[in-house]
Amino acid sequence: MFTSIIVTFIAVDVALYFSRYKYPIFRLNYPRFFSIKDSENGYDISPNFATSTHFFRDDAFPIWSNNIGCFDRDFNGESPYIYMAGDSLTFSFAPFVDTWGSRIEDLSGVRTVKCGVVGYGTKQELIKASRNFERFPHPDLIVVGYTAYNDFDDDVNFPQHTVYNGYMVRSLTKNGVTDTEAEQKYANFWEYCSFNKPSNPIIARVRCFVTNHSVLFNLFKTGLHDKIVSVLPKGLVAMLENSGVLSKPQNLDGDKTDTEAYGKHLQNIFGFKKLAQEKNSKLLFILGPYDNSRVIPFLEKEKIPYIDLNPIFDKYKKIKPLIWTRDGHYNIAGNHLVGLVVSKYTIENNLVTVADKEGKLTVIDAQFEKEFGSLL
After folding, report:
1. What is the pLDDT of residues 336-356, one digit of tens each?
2. Domains detected in the chain
3. What is the rounded CA–CA span in Å between residue 86 and residue 145?
4. How far is CA 372 from CA 25, 89, 92, 314, in A?
5. What's the CA gap between 83 and 145, in Å, rounded?
6. Counting beta carbons within 10 angstroms of the beta carbon of residue 58, is it exposed (0 to 12), middle (13 to 18) or buried (19 or more)?
7. pTM as predicted
8. How, if at all, do strands 81-86 and 282-287 pair?
9. Which among 20, 55, 293, 327 could disulfide-bond with 60, CB atoms 3.0 to 4.6 Å apart, if both were Cys?
10. What CA–CA distances, in Å, run from 329 to 34, 132, 176, 288, 326?
């Protein structure tokens, strides 16, 4: 009886591995060597990376990189162009043709260089943009995708990630941890799914193998996490989270009490204003649909144009889902919505020069009505 249950479990698990339910498995997220070490930014996207697959918790899509290390087709200084900086929301978890950067390019007719990098904060985005602008003519418009909690947190912990064994990993070389010690911790994590060598290596290896290869285990773990947490004592939950049995909830707000750190973060935002002025480029911040109350007064004080997606997403999420169910990034509809909103704003406010302005706005309105049932 017990053997039959085990065989059935393995058979179901193997079958699920060839289905869309394999997406929660952590190590399949990004292909090996898609990220490369960077002495200043910690890591970056490897230039000229051949087409592979990006897996995430809801789906999987082809990804690649171009000659300047961006998820885009090659760029050789064509002008005029729009440059897009940002994190994973700008990188976009969608087919390339459906990303909001691709939609802006199609709707405006202006070449859009799409250089969002998963895990980047404002400081890293600024460094990458500055480097690129040293090589190419200035862009007509710089669009910065901004995620309030993420950008601040990544700036505070800059650089928050590096590369080990061809994969992006959290940087450990802080608080007295040497490079040699960090390498050992990464090796431990790769073998045991724990930065510290466990007291029982055999059990740890088995648990790590199951975590990295069992679809059923990951579905169970992610699907029941909240229910388990709600009924267990807080002390026991903390112990299970620290041991890795339960995953810890993500802190979406950073340390909002750290006024000095937030001031430095705002200076990175101001750095984009200075860069735009130096390059004679226009600038536009796109604020993700999160709590933007802290950054908006600064943008208004510095007269930095922005679009707050909060009220827009609140309105149109009633028409159709805009966020992936498990993952939390914009889904295909969400990418289309942002692309339409940004395209219309940039054309109406003359942030880019386009042929047949009224005609393009008419097309955008028609597409908006077709996809979301009403005009913006």
Report:
1. 999 999 999 999 999 999 999
2. 2-27+173-243 (no CATH), 29-158+257-372 (3.40.50.1110)
3. 5
4. 33, 21, 20, 13
5. 11
6. middle
7. 0.86
8. unpaired
9. 55
10. 20, 26, 34, 10, 9
